[in-house]
């Protein structure tokens, strides 16, 4: 598995690593932290918006120059479509074209896939928790197993996310470190570490 911390600047990795290890040692529950640069490629959006932009531009051209033939209009439309697709494929523009609800849905889907792969498959007690962050979408989500949900007051995980999101205005890593610490403290209370004889 790729180290989830390699997406962060070297100066922040040590802080995150310490917070994650502290959270893991404080509980008998499984705790995982996954960070991804983006939850989706969103490859369809430049194509769709490129087609719309090319059709609109060709329509404007046809209204302004009605004597141009259909063959010329087709060539212009095809050329504009290619140009718009190439320009809109630039990652910041591509991400900007994706509606916020679609970005959130993609990030949430990936969070649940990662939970199934890294927590649920290795956690027969269903007490595991995944703290998932998708950097491009600026999405933070906690996915918890059945036992982890049942062991804490309702809304606990949502409150950790909202508190961390609020503190991310001061810096992404500050918010993540506080979320990791809060997850560790919550799990430590619900599932204290097992003492080994």
Keywords:
single chain; 197 residues; mainly alpha; Diaminopimelate Epimerase, Chain A, domain 1; 8 helices; elongated
Percent in strands: 5-15%
Q: Return the structural class.
A: mainly alpha
Q: What letter string, H or E per element, gives the SSE order? A: HEHHHHEEHHH
Multimeric state: single chain
Quick one: how many beta strands?
3
Choose one word for the global shape: elongated
CATH domain fold name of the largest domain: Diaminopimelate Epimerase, Chain A, domain 1
Strand order within the widest beta sheet: 1-2-3
The main sheet comes to: 3 strands, mixed
The tally of structural domains comes to 2
Helix fraction?
Answer: 55-70%
* Unreliable spans: none
Q: What is the terminal separation in angstroms?
A: 32 Å
Q: For the CA atoms, what is the radius of gyration?
A: 23 Å
What's the helix count? 8
Question: Could you name the CATH class of the largest domain?
Answer: Alpha Beta
Question: Mean pLDDT, rounded to whole units?
Answer: 91
CATH architecture of the largest domain: Roll
